[in-house]
Design brief:
The protein is about 55% helix and about 10% strand. With about 250 residues, the protein is α+β, with helices and mostly antiparallel strands. The chain is globular and about 50 Å long.
């Protein structure tokens, strides 16, 4: 898991290292209102939050960051934090993100990945937190690559992201005030054309398609209707509507 997180961080670093100041100011269509710099700032901020979580001080970190008046919506909170800190130099931001990503990896690796930590959606295993950090870095790497015209090839790191999206379907449904009629199987074509299958016993609903499409839909980057994804069963439409990889 941590090797995958490092590899994803390295992929993003490879893009950022080749950008001049003007390209850091490029708008990111997938994140309306944000530039490349804003996206990197958001990653730096959330990496720092993950460090606080791994070190058992997440709630005090959140309180300090929000001044005790944290907004109710996660997206609103992210926008507020970026707005509060944007405008610094590219060099400082780049160093902050790179250094913070290293500290995040070290903090997660310091203890057993099965230990419980606090995060936005509540308590979870440190391994799950690492997966959410991989997922967020992958999503925003795509956002930045799209903005600056870099083509990325899908990798087997998507396995972790797809599994997270599948495992958290009950959370996604509960967040929307809905419930699953039964278990869901997800059968995906991996980047190397092998098959990844996620299921718990017999499933009433099955989602099939390409792994990258499933991860992009779960990351709210594309609509299911323009992907290879197909669903069968009573929850098929709802799964494709509600699946998500973030709080």
């Amino acid at each position: 898991m941590l090797e995958a997180l490092r590899a994803q961080r390295d992929e993003l670093d490879g893009i950022l290292a080749g950008l001049d100041d003007d390209r850091w100011a490029t708008p990111t269509p997938r994140c309306p209102g944000w530039t490349v710099s804003d996206v990197v700032l958001h990653l730096a901020q959330t990496d720092e939050a993950a460090v606080a979580s791994a070190q058992g001080r997440f709630m005090s970190f959140v309180s300090a960051a929000g001044g005790g008046q944290g907004p109710q919506d996660v997206d609103e909170a992210a926008a507020m934090l970026v707005a509060a800190e944007r405008g610094g130099s590219v060099e400082q931001l780049y160093s902050r993100w790179r250094d913070g990503a290293e500290v995040q990896l070290a903090s997660l690796a310091e203890g057993d990945l099965s230990r419980r930590v606090t995060w936005v959606a509540g308590e979870m295993a440190a391994r799950t937190l690492a997966t959410t950090r991989l997922t967020e870095c992958w999503i925003h790497t795509g956002d930045i690559a799209d903005a600056v015209g870099v083509n990325l090839e899908p990798t087997d790191r998507l396995w972790h992201i797809a599994r997270l999206a599948w495992r958290t379907l009950p959370y996604a449904f509960a967040r929307a005030g809905r419930s699953l009629e039964g278990s869901v199987a997800v059968v995906l074509t991996a980047p190397d054309e092998t098959t990844w299958e996620f299921r718990d016993g017999d499933a009433l609903t099955t989602i099939t398609g390409r792994a990258e499409d499933f991860c992009l839909v779960a990351g709210r980057r594309v609509a299911p209707s323009v992907t290879s994804l197909v669903g069968e069963g009573p929850d098929a439409d709802a799964v494709l509507e509600l699946v998500r990889t973030f709080a």
